[in-house]
Design a protein that fits this description.
The chain has twelve helices and no strands. By secondary structure, it is mainly α. It has a domain of 67 residues. The longest helix has 12 residues. 38% of the residues are buried. Helix 6 packs parallel to helix 8, helix 8 packs parallel to helix 10 and helix 10 runs parallel beside helix 12. It is elongated, with a radius of gyration of 21 Å.
């Protein structure tokens, strides 16, 4: 909701003219709808991981080099960028993806389509993701994740069944 819409004379308010250039939610709506941003908005887009991803996906429909540093700072958007835009490995984004067990697992599954050794320490830190990594990526024993998996009775039981197939 925009507070400008509630005012009798919104154009008289400070910041009315610039609102669409600096408010991320307004820029995101514009970019998601496929409208080309102006020069000021483009500066903000290039420094915001979410906006940079949506700009690449909906406006450029391809890589956005000016926004890749921002995208590479967020594991979620780095994963999405690799999956939907690059359709392959995003080396710059891997530096942050390896810090998040969920996106490290998804990156291994959807982008690499195999083991992701750099992401294994993060994956091994969570019993849920460690179990699923062992099941769907390694399809067997995941020694690095075993201590964490063993700490969760539910995933430990599932993991034991996996190993005893």
């Amino acid at each position: 909701m925009s507070l400008y819409n509630l005012h009798v004379k919104p154009k008289s308010l400070h910041g009315y003219e610039e609102r669409n250039n600096v408010v991320p939610e307004l820029i995101k709506k514009q970019v998601e709808s496929g409208k080309q941003p102006n020069v000021q908005q483009l500066k903000n887009i290039g420094s915001n991981p979410e906006l940079a991803y949506w700009y690449a996906r909906n406006i450029i429909k391809g890589r956005f080099p000016e926004g890749e540093n921002a995208i590479a700072s967020d594991p979620y958007y780095a994963y999405l960028y690799a999956t939907h835009i690059i359709k392959g490995r995003f080396k710059e984004g891997e530096k942050i993806i390896v810090s998040d067990p969920q996106y490290a697992l998804l990156y291994a599954k959807d982008v690499i389509k195999g083991r992701f050794p750099e992401g294994e320490p993060a994956i091994a830190s969570d019993p849920y993701y460690a179990y699923w990594y062992a099941t769907y990526i390694i399809k067997g024993r995941f020694p690095e994740g075993e201590p964490t998996i063993a700490s969760d009775p539910y995933y430990n039981k599932l993991y034991q069944k996996l190993l005893n197939k």
